[in-house]
Amino acid sequence: MQTLGEIVRETIQWFDDLMPVEEAKLRAASRYSVAELEDIMKREQVAVLRLKGLDKRREELLAARGLPGLSLREILERLPEEERKELAPLYEELERRFCLYKTLSEDINELLRNNIHTTNRQAENRASYDRQEREKQAAHFTSRKA
């Protein structure tokens, strides 16, 4: 069975692997590249499945050790001193990676919301323009001044 340290190291590596994908997503979103975003989202789905597997293994390990459902801080508090010394730096590193990911993810979501808002506004403006043009043409054909 894996140790908790090994699972945390794999999770840190997971974040390291995901960050370039998220950075590519940010670049694609800033260029309005829908095709590229779709490709990146497929890669994200694979990463999410990998994370679910890591999470399942972590839960199984914690359940076997009588620590199910606890936060990382709570787990650290309950571990023997020797194991705590090994895991504390890993947990801090994991927390750093998570914070970086969260910040980048928030930036991407904000950019995507802005893109959607801009696209909707452009579509509304185009629809309004098209409606005005149709009304002008209809008025032109129904004019009796000729």
Task: Write out key terms for the chains shown.
87% helix, 146 residues, mainly alpha
Could you walk me through the main structural features you see in this protein, from its secondary elements to its overall organization?
With about 150 residues, the chain is mostly helical. Helices cover about 85% and strands about 0% of the residues. It is rod-shaped, with a radius of gyration of 26 Å. The termini are far apart. The mean pLDDT is about 90.
- Structurally, how many domains make up the residues? 1
Largest sheet: none
Strand content: under 5%
Mean pLDDT: 89
Unreliably modeled segments: none
How many β-strand stretches?
A: 0
Distance between the termini: 91 Å
Helix and strand run: HHHH
**If helices are DSSP runs of H or I spanning 4 or more residues, what is the number of helices?**
4
Shape: rod-shaped
Helix content: over 70%
Structural class category: mainly alpha
Rg (CA only): 26 Å
In short:
The chain has 146 residues and is mainly α.
What is the topological layout?
Blueprint: H1 4-30, H2 34-64, H3 72-78, H4 81-142
Helix pairs in contact: 1-2, 1-4, 3-4
